[in-house]
Recover the amino acids of this structure.
């Protein structure tokens, strides 16, 4: 009787061994008793066995590259999950800024590298001489699939960064309400704190313990979130609050930007610039309080205090 | 009993090469191509869209019969019906080889001889090691909704009722239904109690199905063991089999609710409709069309309105549109306010704006759905007006529920009245079925003359007329209507299969008269599920595949039942399906769950043409 495979409530019957038994018998008949190596159904262990693929060497260059990228995206997603957890967990008094900063940078580099690999893969597929129409369609879909997975990862990444920025801002606001000193310091900081137009900044990657007012938000790499620019910019000018992000994604703000969902059409920054600048940002553990410029809320906090 | 979800799960598992679904795979990504045949394509189409297939690593889906080119280094999943022709084609693909490895899945069990043939071909070409897996799937049915499936076996009414049908043809048709229903039961993981009216195709299918289940249940590791262990409900469902002859009127009459109208007037196929585009096309070019999916999950308007009467649907479209406009105004107002406040430096909060922005995608989606239904309803309205469907519907409804007005009908049949010849023919057939006694010959003659004037072929009318007169003969023999019907008339073709089925024709109709408007199937099912004593179902056959042959059925077999599966042999429709849903939901304290299946979903027009075909065969 054929074995039964049944899980998650669905049922089907595996007849592979029945099929191979018939084939074995037929082969013996054919060869009139000569010894032939026995046929065995493909074993179940391991993934490449699952798909029935032969060893890695026999696989085409395209499929090797594709699977490497697939693995890369998966690895990046895993890191991203960790980053998300860290960002969500951080509180005013316990902020793993350094870890977050490092992870952010690594993920950033990963995404850029993967983006490059996908472009290579696409070029490779186009130049594949063995290709026929359906083979090309297959390759194109593989490339599309990888692209969209990477795009999803990138979007998640920007979402996490947004979350991070908001959290930091909330921490800062809360501190502002309770700290006289910081308000005073902030006043003194004002000249240092002229954010370049068209970008947002704040002191990120900061801990409450390490107060070093003179660093300000200036050494931070800046990110300008795509399509939120108009809003955030005006907000910034009104409030004079700095909102910085660990790196910058250059995007031309569109007139209709406000009404579009975020995270679309965001170009990837060059890593070299980031890589070189980011450690500096980490090194200069900035005090979040000093980042605050003169703002309605800031002065309110002052008078209250 | 969400049949559709269970089938989706099974298909997804197959696309994962029959391993349990791994959502967060740490393994390398695997891309696959999927090879289908027309039957399995119809199974997949309402379940998964192309982008969903991609999510499961399917890069291409190709037809087995089409020209296919080799694709290097990729595993191929075959999901096809278990036909000999398909097996031959697969053996050819493997020998080339077109793909790297082959994972074969058959929609229903592959017969042993076919498996041997496949093995023998593969041994000949020394390509056997490329065949990685051979699976029997039990997926040989098309599930369209949570509780609706079709076996995609067209024209089964003709096949079963054809006077010239050979025994082998009938047996083959019955075997196909048995295998399809068996697949459904495996997917649901239930062994039901089977009930059906005695005699005719229904009993034939029921006894064959019982045999199939019984044979399977004796094997130790059977397909139902797991389901029963995995905490399936203790109560077994009821499976009720009916033959289309049990009630003909519902298959012929005009519908007036949204889904039946769309099915009939525009053509609803595998949850898809193609509507003439509202945008004018270039002169000379064929009219542009637009295809829409109509699915409950993705379309709130459809799931709210598919059982609503048409005028109500038109109102709902209006209401939805104005609600959408309000929503849009709200967003604009908030955005405006935000801008002003921002400019004057008053607001320190972007919350309003953010919420407005976030509601935009939802609004856009609403608009898309509304536009779709505006287009569909517009085309429906045009069709309804041109053919005067409302008049047909109202008169038919009146005939079936209260009184039969021949004069009014003759008016609608006349050449000057609106409606196609087919509409008029259907009205006349409903009249014939609704009359308590067969109308006098003079009346019938005048109706036939009117139909001919309207350009209709009267073969279908003659066929139904013949059936009714058979029925009458049997009723004279006794009120029970269980006596041999067709034997008296000497029509041995009817005797062959339908000596009981035929007499049920008007029985269903009378039930309608006594109990407001409720198609007979829904009414009988309610009686059976609630296990009310009723003379009407006393004569029903009962099969329990779990009870030893010859043993008496236990008390459980008597019900009551919370869950039921209804299968209509010979073609069902949305009207009947909705009547079952309505019955099931009527008592909110004790809701019932009903799955409706049929050999094929047929429109009134299709069904009438099957009657016509039979009428022509009957006349020689």
């Amino acid at each position: 009787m054929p074995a039964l495979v049944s899980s998650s409530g669905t049922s089907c019957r595996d007849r592979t061994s029945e099929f191979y038994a018939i084939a074995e018998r037929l082969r013996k008949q054919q060869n009139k008793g000569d010894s032939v190596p026995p046929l065995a159904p493909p074993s179940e262990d391991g993934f490449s066995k699952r798909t029935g693929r032969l060893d890695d060497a026999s696989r085409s260059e395209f499929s090797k590259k594709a699977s490497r990228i697939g693995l890369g995206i998966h690895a990046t997603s895993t890191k991203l999950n960790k980053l998300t957890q860290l960002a969500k967990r951080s509180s005013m008094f316990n902020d793993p800024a350094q870890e977050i900063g490092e992870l952010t940078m690594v993920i950033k580099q990963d995404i850029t590298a993967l983006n490059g690999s996908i472009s290579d893969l696409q070029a490779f597929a186009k130049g594949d001489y063995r290709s026929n129409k359906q083979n090309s369609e297959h390759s194109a879909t593989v490339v599309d699939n990888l692209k969209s997975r990477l795009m999803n990862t990138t979007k998640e990444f920007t979402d996490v960064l947004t979350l991070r920025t908001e959290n930091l801002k909330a921490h800062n606001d809360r501190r502002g309400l309770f700290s006289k000193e910081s308000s005073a310091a902030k006043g003194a900081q004002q000249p240092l704190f002229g954010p370049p137009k068209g970008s947002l900044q704040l002191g990120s990657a900061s801990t409450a313990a390490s107060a070093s007012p003179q660093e300000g938000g200036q050494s931070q790499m800046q990110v300008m979130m795509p399509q939120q620019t108009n809003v955030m910019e005006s907000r910034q000018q009104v409030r004079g609050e700095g909102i910085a992000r660990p790196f910058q994604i250059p995007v031309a703000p569109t007139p209709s930007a406000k009404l579009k969902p975020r995270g679309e059409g965001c170009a990837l920054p060059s890593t070299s610039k980031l890589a070189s600048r980011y450690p500096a940002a980490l090194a200069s553990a900035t005090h979040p309080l000093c980042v605050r410029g003169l703002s309605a809320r800031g002065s309110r906090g002052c008078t209250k205090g | 009993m969400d049949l559709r979800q269970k089938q989706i799960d099974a298909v997804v598992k197959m696309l994962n090469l029959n391993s349990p679904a791994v959502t967060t795979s740490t393994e390398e990504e695997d891309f696959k191509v999927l090879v289908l045949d027309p039957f399995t394509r119809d199974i997949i189409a309402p379940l998964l869209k192309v982008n969903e297939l991609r999510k499961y690593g399917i890069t291409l889906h190709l037809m087995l019969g089409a020209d296919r080119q080799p694709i290097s280094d990729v595993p191929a999943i075959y999901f096809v019906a278990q036909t000999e022709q398909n097996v031959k084609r697969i053996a050819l693909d493997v020998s080339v080889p077109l793909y790297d490895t082959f994972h074969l899945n058959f929609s229903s069990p592959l017969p042993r001889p076919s498996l041997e043939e496949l093995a023998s071909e593969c041994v000949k070409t020394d390509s056997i090691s490329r065949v990685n897996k051979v699976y029997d799937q039990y997926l040989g049915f098309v599930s369209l909704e949570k509780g609706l499936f079709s076996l995609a076996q067209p024209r089964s009414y003709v096949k079963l009722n054809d006077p010239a049908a050979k025994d082998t043809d009938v047996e083959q048709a019955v075997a196909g239904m048995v295998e399809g229903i068996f697949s459904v039961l495996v997917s649901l993981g239930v062994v039901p109690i089977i009930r059906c009216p005695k005699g005719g195709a229904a009993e034939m299918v029921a006894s064959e199905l019982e045999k199939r289940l019984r044979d399977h249940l004796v094997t130790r590791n059977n397909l139902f063991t797991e389901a029963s262990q995995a905490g399936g409900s203790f109560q077994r469902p009821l499976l009720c089999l009916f033959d289309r002859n049990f009630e003909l009127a519902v298959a012929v009459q005009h519908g007036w609710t949204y889904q039946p109208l769309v099915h009939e007037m525009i053509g609803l196929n595998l949850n898809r409709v193609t509507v003439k585009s509202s945008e004018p096309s270039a002169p000379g070019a064929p009219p542009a069309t637009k295809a829409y999916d109509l699915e409950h999950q993705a379309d709130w308007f459809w799931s709210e309105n598919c059982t609503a009467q048409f005028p109500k649907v038109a109102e709902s479209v209006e209401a939805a549109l104005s609600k959408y406009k309000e929503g849009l105004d709200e967003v604009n107002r908030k955005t405006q306010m935000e801008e002003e406040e921002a400019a004057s430096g008053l607001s320190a909060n972007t919350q309003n704006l953010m919420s407005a922005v976030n509601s935009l995608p939802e609004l856009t989606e609403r608009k898309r759905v509304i536009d779709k239904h505006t287009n569909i309803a517009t085309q429906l309205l045009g069709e309804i007006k041109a053919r005067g469907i409302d008049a047909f519907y109202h008169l038919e409804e009146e005939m079936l529920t209260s009184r039969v007005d021949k004069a009014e009908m003759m008016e609608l049949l006349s050449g000057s009245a609106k409606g196609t010849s087919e509409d008029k023919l259907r009205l006349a057939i409903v009249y014939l079925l609704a009359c308590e006694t067969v109308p006098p010959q003079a009346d019938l003659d005048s109706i036939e003359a009117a139909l001919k004037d309207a350009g209709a072929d009267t073969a279908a009318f003659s066929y139904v007329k013949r059936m009714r007169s058979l029925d009458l003969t049997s009723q004279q023999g006794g009120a029970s209507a269980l006596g041999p019907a067709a034997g008296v008339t000497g029509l041995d073709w009817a005797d062959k299969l339908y000596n009981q089925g035929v007499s049920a024709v008007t029985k269903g109709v009378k039930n309608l008269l006594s109990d407001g408007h409720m198609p007979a199937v829904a009414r009988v099912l309610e009686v059976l599920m609630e296990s009310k004593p009723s003379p009407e179902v006393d004569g029903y056959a009962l099969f329990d595949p779990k009870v030893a042959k010859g043993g008496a059925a236990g008390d459980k077999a008597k019900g009551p039942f919370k869950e039921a599966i209804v299968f209509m042999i010979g073609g069902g429709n949305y009207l009947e399906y909705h009547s079952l849903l309505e019955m099931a939901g009527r008592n909110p304290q004790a809701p019932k769950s009903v799955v409706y299946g049929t050999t094929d979903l047929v429109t009134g027009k299709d069904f009438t043409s099957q009657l016509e075909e039979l009428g022509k065969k009957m006349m020689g």
The longest helix of chain A spans residues 133-178. The two ends of chain A are 82 Å apart (CA to CA).
